[in-house]
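Weekly structure sync, notes
Attendees: PL (lead), two postdocs, one rotation student
Agenda item 3: pending single-chain targets
PL asked that the sequence for the first pending target be pasted directly into the notes so everyone works from the same version. It is reproduced below exactly as submitted, 254 residues in total.
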Amino acid sequence: MNQSRKGIWSLLAPLWAVWVILLFITTMLLVFPFFLAFSYFRPDPQKTRSFASMARIWMGVFLPLAGAPLSVRGREKFAPGQTYIVVCNHNALLDVPISYPGIPGGNKTIAKIEMARIPLFGMIYKTGSVLVDRKDENSRRESFAKMKEALDMGLHMCIYPEGTRNKTGDPLKSFHDGAFRLALSTGKPILPAVIFNTRKVMPPGKSFYFRPSRLYMEFLDPITPQPGDTVETLNQLVFKTMWERYTAGPNERQ
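Predicted structure, written out during the meeting:
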């Protein structure tokens, strides 16, 4: 039975991917005039907060129509008036359009600069991002300063500490240090988040494939840097916390 289903989805998933791409472009074009009118020309942090509100409506329509409705738990972990460094696991391209509207309030995501060059979409992408050219040392330094500025403006900062999508067989790849250096530099708490099922919807190694499935995102307890903490100790603690929660699987009652 399982083999039969896999065979069916090996045929259907590429066709569904066509629908998802067309749906994304169509909904983006519908959102774009509102984005220009109410977000793009405003200064930050109002610009980002306005776009985050639009993104929640956009993804609230797009994800269910794509066959991947999202359930989110743990938003109450965000204390009013506090900004956080949110760290998420990363299995698929779908993680960003989940995490950005999933995080309550205005937020920016550290993101690679190449995507910002796509016409129209690039304007939207830049609004919700701190851009970095990973090959450029100056760009990496500037992005760190811009992340601090975002936190100072009252925006949350979302970072994928694995750096790139996890294409290994392990629940998580090892974490880079940027999020933890940022926490120690600013004193801001880290708020771990785990995203479930995007690997199932968009498996690694399959470039034109989309299999409908319910998605889950869960915010865990914040971790505030303590005296004596180092980049390494924070890295290890957050990694262990996220590994244990991810391997336990989603709470499907949410």
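Discussion points:
- Residues 194 and 246 are 6 Å apart (CA to CA).
- Helices lie at 2-40, 46-65, 95-102, 121-127, 137-152, 178-186, 198-201, 231-248.
Action: rotation student to compare against the earlier draft before next sync.
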